[in-house]
Each structure stands twice: as structure tokens, then as C-alpha cells.
């Protein structure tokens, strides 16, 4: 008979086969042990080692108690077994069931007697055996016999899997190194329904330590999308048994990245706990406003910079979450550039912005009508300034101004007088909600509405002319920040808000369905928010949005930065306006401003409810394809049937369209095509009667 190739040799055990397989590695790495030695989890880090040592000590301390209780349980168990046997329990029960107990009674009694005798004989035999052993070997024999009996009883009385009262006892939380095991990951992805039962993951890189956590890159099965993993991060965190704040999921983009490649990072502990980081601006002698401003760090403690020039920023949060701090961080970078000009308006009227008064070209602090009027006047001044800048840039040499956009050179040339100018408004809702009526053009409107129009203009037309708008609000709802203003604010930062609707108002439509919901942030995480950078910016181009923990800038640091900003301006000769003691307001040609705003206000001469729909949608009237009726009814607080009828009378007929719902599923809902709305508006404006048929 032919000999098997391995005969005579020790059989080599195959490594466990895992579903996950490794790709893109030059030398394939065994993911499940095999011929290569894999470091046990407790050797992977000092922390894991300490955890393992603690677990061993705890086990040793508990061991005597556990042994004693197991022996006790074993003794009781043995006694019960013996009693059942001696009483001929099973025979007796069977006879009872078949109602033949009386017939069998004599038989049972005889058997019971016999078993008692056997028991007595065994006890006598054991006792005499022990006596003989004692006489031969002394007390050692008794101890030995006692030990053997204890072990037998302990084994009999050990707690078994699934036994009632069995407690799950784990030595602390699951080790993260264990969580990063490929098979655990595959199971977690399956449990979270991110991959099917028969699908598997491909590991691009094995788990490795990155910062204070574990990182792993994986490829999803074909047709599965990284965006869905980001969206269902909570489910994955639950399946991996980690807190969702510890789990960072990113899509790998650019070279080597694709729609199905996911980078996972699991922090050892809450990445936003511990002392906050001080802003590096404290150490900066000065700052170039054209450079992105140090804003905060992400979960992996990587610095996140926020460009401000050519864009704008909206910060929204419920009170006491770090909104003012975020706005002051953005302002600090501009304060430290002596060539930038600052308009600082604080609707809260507290001390938060007081220090900025010494550098601000225009400064308003308070929520009274005179304050709102002052803000309106300063914004009017800026609108005129923007118009003038465009005219001046058009007249400039092509070499100085190649594309009707401000450049660093232009912004720093005192002769051209076009410095980077920031409008920073804290608690902007105070100014936007003021209902006092004023005359604009030929119409009377609320001053707050006018402020919104001016800000919308500045955020839309201002960036290319060097205007930066930074708005912070504790009321991020659609009524307070009209969509015509919101839609033109480039970067968004949402700290904790009340619900997903408010989060979407700050971050943009449907952001919650893509996995970005600022209402899920923890109250204890002060200064932590979701940053959705402007699409044009380089920073953050890797992902749509990211969680950022803003730098901490204590009051003293803030005051020091403002004082430094003043000194820099004094030295550069750029201290102007309020900071230089000049509070005179420029006389404004309001007709020019009204022209600039396109008819004076954001409202058109449209009948209701179309006028409100247009106002609510703002720029989205152009950007969106479809708007659900339910959304309009909720936003405008109107009654649905009446609204539908009135819209019909104005020539706007509803239709059905698929839109993604909150859970990401596509749902067919009733609503209006924006193209139909635009056509109806054009028709009304051109004077033709709307066709209600
Ligand atoms: N990055 C941060 N790290 C740690 N703590 C922070 C951070 N940012 C803000 N905080 C703390 O959060 C609290 C609230 O901050 P801040 O005043 O900026 O909030 P706010 O939202 O502007 O509040 P309000 O609505 O009352 O004006 C402060 O005590 C501040 O110290």
C-alpha cells in the first residue's frame, strides 16, 4: 500500500479559515494565525497587558471562594442524587403514574431497604478504607482523600453553560484588539446588515495601532457602498460593542480609494474626553487671513484648519455648547492679520465679544432696536462697498486682478483699500427676528427681514470681493435663518442641536440620512460639532463632513489675541473705524442698495402662498428638483388641503416623486417640481393669468 505523503510526520494543523481575506499586500498576511505567529491580544499594547494582568489577579482572588461554593453545590447535588436513588424515585414515580403503587409497594420497599444496606456498606467500606489508610500513612491520607473528594464535588457542582442564574462575567470590557479580529469584523458587518449572510469583507490592511486606537481598512463586497457604512455607523458600533463616539468610519477617496473602500478607526476610549486643546493661535505673533485658520482637532487628534477667505461660515447650536468659542476661533485668525477689517456684532450683548472692540472697524453689542438699526446701517455700508469693489476690480489691470476676484496682493494694498473684511455676528437671530417695520424702496418690511436680505447678498456676492460672513445662532430653525440666507453660507458647523431637523438646517438637507446628525452629539462634549466645509475648500475634501473638537480659547487667551491684533494694526497703520474712535456712519445711497438686492427685498410681488414658498426655498428654488408638500406645509405652518388648493389656483400642480427618507429608503411622496414652480412664477410675473385648470 502506498504511503501517505505525511505518514510518519506529525500532522500539520491547518489555520482556522476566515471569511475575510487580505488584498493589496505585497506579502500576504495570515489573518487567522497559521504558520506565522500572531501576537496574543495582551501583548499588543501596554494597556492590553495591564488589563490582562488585572484580570488574572481578579481571577486568583476569586478562585478560593468559587472553589468553596462549587464544593458546597457539589455536596448538595450528590446528596440529592443519592436520595433519589435510595428511595427508588424513578421506579416509585413510574408506579404512581401507572396507578400501580399499591401493587408494587412491597417490591419498592424491599428495593429501598436493599439500597439503604448498600449505602451503609459503602460508607462502612470507605470509613474502614480511610481508617486503614490513616493507620498506614497518617493524616496525609485523610487530607489527600478529602482533597480528591472536594475536587470531585467541585467538578460536579461547577456552574454549567446555560444553567439558571449563570452570570456573564467578563474581565472588563471586550478588548479592542479582539474587536479588530477579521472574523469579528465580518460578523459585525453581517449583524449590522451592512453585508449579506453569504458576503465577506476583504482586508486591505490588517488592524494596526494609529494614535490612541485601532485602524483597519477594508473593501466591501461589490455593489456595497462605503456611504452606507457611514450612514449606519451606529448599528456597526453596536455590533462591535463599542460606543458610537469611539467608532470613526471614513470612505477612502482619491488614489487607492473607491466607493466601497472603508477606513475604520476605533478609539480606545471616548476621543472627546480629557482636557481640551489650547488654540495654537495663542502662540502666533500674527496670522495670514488667507491661510486656513486652526479650528480644532478630529477624533484622531489631527488638526483641522478652516479656510475663511472666499467662503462664509454658519455656526449653530443650542446654548452652552461652544458656539461663541467656535465663532471667536474663526475671528481670532482674522484679528491676528493686521490687514483684515472686522465688523463685529454681538446680539447677546454680554462680555463675550468685548475684547474685539479694540480691533473692530464696526462694533455693535446689544439687542435693542438702535442696535439692530446700527447693524442694518453697517451692512448697508458693506453692500455698497461690495458694489464699489467690483467696479474698482473691473478697472484694475489684468495682471493685478486676473479674474474679478480679490487676491492676497489686492487685499494688502492700502492704495486699493480692499482688505479682507469679516462680518462676525453672534446670536444673529436677534437681528434677524426683529419685527420693527421700516421702509425699503417703496415697501414696508420688518427690519430683521432686511438684515437677512443684506446678509444673503453679502454671503452670495461678497466672498469674491473679500467679504467673509461668520454667523452664529442658537436658533437654527428655518424661520430664523431664512433659506435664501442659509443656502449661500458655504461652511457649516453644527454643535449639539435639539433634533435632526435643526441639524439639517445647519448642515444641509438630508445630512442626517447620510450619517451626520448633530442632535446625536453628547451634552458633555462641549465644543464638539460636525463641520461641513465649503465644497470649494481643500480641507476636508476627503469626506462630506467631519466631527471636530474645537480648540479651547479661554478668556485670557482671547483678550491677549485681541490686544495683539490691536498692536499689529497700530504698527501697520490699519486701525480704523470704531477701534480708532471713529463711529461716524457713511451716508448710503439706498436706491443703489435696493437695486443691488434685486428689487429691495427677498420677497417678490407674488400672491400667497407662492410668495412664502419662494421665500422659504430661496436659492433652493434653482438648486432643488423637487420639494415635498409635507415639507412646505410644515415650514410655512399652513393647512395642507387649503395650501394645495391655493397652489393649484396659482398654476402649481403637485406630482409624485421619489425622495430619500430619514432612514435612507426611497419613498414616493407628493410635492412640487421646482421647474413647475418657476414656470408659474414667470407666468405670474409676466402678467399672464395663472391657469388653474
Ligand atoms: N472646545 C472646547 N473644549 C472644551 N470646552 C469648551 C469648548 N468650547 C466651549 N467650551 C465650554 O462650553 C461652554 C459654553 O461655551 P460658549 O460660551 O462658547 O457656548 P455658547 O454656545 O456660545 O453659549 P451661549 O449660547 O450661552 O452663548 C463654556 O464653558 C466653554 O468653556
Description:
The chain has 693 residues and is α/β, with parallel strands linked by helices. It has four domains: 46-156, no CATH class; 176-267, Threonyl-tRNA Synthetase, Chain A, domain 2 (2-Layer Sandwich), CATH 3.30.980; 294-594, Rossmann fold; 604-685, Arc Repressor Mutant, subunit A, CATH 1.10.10. The protein contains 22 helices and 20 strands. The strands form four sheets. It has a ten-stranded mixed β-sheet with strand order 7-6-17-16-15-8-14-11-9-10. The model is unreliable at 1-12, 14-19, 21-36, 161-173, 536-541, 599-604 and 688-693 (pLDDT under 50). It binds adenosine-5'-triphosphate. The site of adenosine-5'-triphosphate (ATP) has 16 residues, from helix 9 and strand 17.
Low-confidence stretches: 1-12, 14-19, 21-36, 161-173, 536-541, 599-604, 688-693
How many E strands?
20
Q: What's the helical proportion of residues?
A: 25-40%
What is the fourth-level CATH superfamily of the largest domain?
P-loop containing nucleotide triphosphate hydrolases
Compute the separation of the termini in Å. 95 Å
* Oligomeric state: single chain
CATH architecture call of the largest domain: 3-Layer(aba) Sandwich
Amino acid at each position: 500500500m502506498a504511503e501517505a505523503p505525511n505518514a510518519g510526520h506529525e500532522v500539520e494543523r491547518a489555520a482556522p479559515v476566515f471569511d475575510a481575506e487580505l488584498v493589496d499586500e505585497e506579502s500576504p498576511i495570515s489573518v487567522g494565525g497559521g504558520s506565522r505567529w500572531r501576537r496574543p491580544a495582551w501583548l499588543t499594547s501596554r494597556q492590553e497587558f495591564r488589563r490582562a494582568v488585572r484580570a488574572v489577579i481578579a481571577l486568583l482572588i476569586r478562585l478560593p471562594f468559587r472553589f468553596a461554593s462549587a464544593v458546597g453545590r457539589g455536596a448538595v447535588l450528590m446528596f440529592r442524587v443519592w436520595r433519589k436513588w435510595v428511595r427508588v424515585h424513578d421506579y416509585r414515580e413510574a408506579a404512581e403514574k401507572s396507578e400501580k403503587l399499591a401493587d408494587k409497594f412491597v417490591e419498592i420497599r424491599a428495593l429501598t431497604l436493599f439500597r439503604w444496606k448498600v449505602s451503609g456498606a459503602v460508607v462502612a467500606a470507605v470509613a474502614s478504607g480511610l481508617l486503614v489508610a490513616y493507620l498506614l500513612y497518617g493524616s496525609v491520607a485523610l487530607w489527600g482523600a478529602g482533597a480528591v473528594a472536594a475536587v470531585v464535588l467541585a467538578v460536579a457542582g461547577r456552574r454549567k453553560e446555560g444553567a439558571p442564574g449563570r452570570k456573564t462575567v467578563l474581565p472588563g470590557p471586550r478588548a479592542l484588539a479582539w474587536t479588530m479580529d477579521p472574523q469579528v469584523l465580518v460578523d459585525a458587518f453581517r449583524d449590522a446588515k451592512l453585508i449579506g449572510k453569504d458576503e465577506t469583507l476583504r482586508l486591505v490592511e490588517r488592524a494596526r495601532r494609529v494614535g490612541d486606537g485601532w485602524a483597519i481598512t477594508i473593501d466591501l463586497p461589490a455593489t456595497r457602498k462605503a456611504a452606507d457604512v457611514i450612514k449606519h455607523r451606529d448599528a456597526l458600533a453596536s455590533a462591535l460593542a463599542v460606543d458610537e463616539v469611539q467608532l470613526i468610519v471614513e470612505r477612502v477617496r482619491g488614489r487607492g480609494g473607491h466607493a466601497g473602500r472603508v477606513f475604520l478607526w476605533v478609539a480606545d476610549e471616548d476621543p472627546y474626553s480629557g482636557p481640551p486643546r489650547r488654540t495654537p493661535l495663542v502662540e502666533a505673533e500674527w496670522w495670514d487671513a488667507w491661510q486656513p485658520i486652526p479650528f480644532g482637532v478630529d477624533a484622531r487628534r489631527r488638526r483641522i484648519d478652516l479656510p475663511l477667505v472666499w467662503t462664509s461660515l454658519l455656526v449653530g447650536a443650542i446654548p452652552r455648547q461652544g458656539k461663541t468659542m467656535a465663532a471667536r476661533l474663526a475671528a481670532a485668525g482674522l484679528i491676528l492679520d493686521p490687514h483684515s477689517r472686522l465688523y463685529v456684532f454681538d446680539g447677546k450683548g454680554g462680555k463675550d465679544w468685548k475684547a474685539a472692540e479694540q480691533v473692530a472697524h464696526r462694533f455693535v453689542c446689544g439687542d435693542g432696536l438702535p442696535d439692530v438699526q446700527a447693524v442694518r446701517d453697517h451692512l448697508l455700508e458693506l453692500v455698497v462697498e461690495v458694489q464699489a469693489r467690483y467696479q474698482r476690480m473691473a478697472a484694475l489691470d489684468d495682471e493685478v486682478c486676473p479674474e474679478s476676484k480679490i487676491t492676497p496682493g489686492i487685499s494688502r494694498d492700502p492704495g486699493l483699500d480692499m482688505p479682507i473684511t469679516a462680518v462676525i455676528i453672534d446670536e444673529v437671530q436677534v437681528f434677524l427676528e426683529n419685527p420693527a417695520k421700516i421702509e425699503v424702496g417703496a415697501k414696508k418690511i420688518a427690519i430683521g427681514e432686511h438684515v437677512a436680505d443684506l446678509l444673503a447678498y453679502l454671503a452670495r456676492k461678497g466672498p469674491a470681493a473679500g467679504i467673509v460672513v461668520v454667523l452664529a445662532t442658537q436658533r437654527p430653525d428655518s424661520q430664523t435663518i431664512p433659506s435664501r440666507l442659509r443656502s449661500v453660507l458655504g461652511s457649516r458647523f453644527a454643535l449639539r442641536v435639539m433634533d435632526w431637523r435643526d441639524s439639517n438646517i445647519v448642515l444641509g438637507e438630508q445630512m442626517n440620512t447620510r450619517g451626520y446628525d448633530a442632535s446625536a452629539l453628547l451634552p458633555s462634549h462641549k465644543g464638539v460639532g460636525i463641520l461641513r466645509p465649503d465644497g470649494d475648500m481643500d480641507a476636508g475634501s476627503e469626506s462630506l463632513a467631519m466631527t471636530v473638537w474645537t480648540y479651547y480659547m479661554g478668556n485670557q487667551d482671547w483678550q491677549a489675541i485681541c490686544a495683539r491684533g490691536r498692536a499689529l494694526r497700530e504698527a501697520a497703520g490699519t486701525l480704523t473705524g470704531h477701534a480708532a474712535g471713529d463711529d461716524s456712519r457713511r451716508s448710503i445711497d439706498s436706491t443703489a442698495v435696493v437695486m443691488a438686492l434685486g428689487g429691495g427685498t427677498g420677497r417678490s410681488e407674488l400672491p400667497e402662498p407662492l410668495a412664502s414658498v419662494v421665500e422659504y426655498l430661496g436659492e433652493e428654488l434653482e438648486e432643488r428638483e423637487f420639494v415635498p408638500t409635507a415639507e412646505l406645509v410644515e415650514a410655512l405652518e399652513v393647512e395642507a388641503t387649503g395650501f394645495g388648493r391655493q397652489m393649484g389656483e396659482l398654476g402649481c400642480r403637485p406630482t409624485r416623486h421619489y425622495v430619500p427618507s430619514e432612514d435612507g429608503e426611497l419613498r414616493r411622496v407628493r410635492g412640487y417640481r421646482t421647474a413647475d414652480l418657476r414656470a408659474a412664477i414667470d407666468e405670474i410675473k409676466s402678467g399672464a393669468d395663472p391657469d388653474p385648470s
